[in-house]
Structure formats: structure tokens, C-alpha cells
Amino acid sequence: MAAKKEAAKKKDKKEERVLTKPERMKKALDKQEKKEVYIPLEGKEPEGAVETVILNGYRYDIKKGVRVEVPAQVADIIYDAMEQTRKAHTEALKRAGKAEELE
Q1: Distance (Å, rounded) from C-alpha 30 to C-alpha 22?
Q2: At what angle do helices 21-31 and 72-95 cross, to 10 degrees?
Q3: How many CB atoms sit inside 10 A of residue 33's CB?
Q4: Residue 19, Cβ neighbours under 10 Å: how many?
Q5: Helical segments of 16-96, H only
Q6: What pTM did the predictor assign?
Q7: Rounded mean pLDDT of the chain?
Q8: Distance of alpha carbon 92 from alpha carbon 89, whole angstroms
Q9: Is the pLDDT of residue 62 over 60?
Q10: Percent of the chain predicted with pLDDT > 90
């Protein structure tokens, strides 16, 4: 009888385990609506290359060169990064006097 009580206590402790930050992030991402993203391959990247987004310690790999559905928060990060890259590229071309390449 005592062994059963001890086993029940151990089971309760396992169920009460606090989730780690990455585990909580995964759980939150799983609940989010999904958005479609497309990240092009760069240069000579092979098929199957991935872009990695890390949120609160949770690693999310996104395959490049194909359309994929990802949680909304991940999609927003990808879109923001792409926009920042576009702006930086545009500014670099302007400074280099190559504004015609922008068109």
C-alpha cells in the first residue's frame, strides 16, 4: 500500500513539473494561427537549406525555397527581417550612387 502511495506522489510531481521557457514558447506557438512564408535560397545554398528563428530558447527551423506555414509570430519575425534587409540594401545602393538598380 505504501508503495502505491509513493508511486502516486512521484506521478503527481512529474505532472507538476514546471515547463521550461522553450517548452512554454513551443506551446504558445502551437496555439497561434499559421501564416504562409517563403524564404528564397541565397546564392549557392543547396536545396533543403533552412532559416532558423529562436524565440525564448525555442528553435524553429524554416525550409528555404518552398512555401511553408509557420506560427504568426515566426512569420512576423521573418517578414520584419526581410524588410530590414531590403531597406539596408536600398540604402547601400543609394550611397553607392546606383539608384538605377532600385528600379
Answers
A1: 12
A2: 90
A3: 9
A4: 10
A5: 21-31, 72-95
A6: 0.73
A7: 87
A8: 5
A9: yes
A10: 65
Q: Which three cell numbers stand for residue 81?
A: 527581417
Q: What are the C-alpha distances in Å from 90 to residues 31, 38, 42, 82, 85? A: 36, 21, 18, 12, 9
Tell me how far apart the alpha carbons of residues 61 and 65 are, in angstroms, rounded to a whole number: 13
Quick one: which of 84, 63, 77 has its CA closest to 29? Answer: 77
Average pLDDT over residues 52-76: 96
Q: What is the pLDDT of residue 31?
A: 97
| Residue 53: other Cβ atoms inside 10 A | 19
Mean pLDDT to the nearest integer, 71-83:
95
DSSP code, position 102: G
Give pLDDT tens digits for 63-73.
Answer: 999 999 999 99
Query: Cell 538605377 appears where?
Result: 100
* Strand partners of residue 67: 38
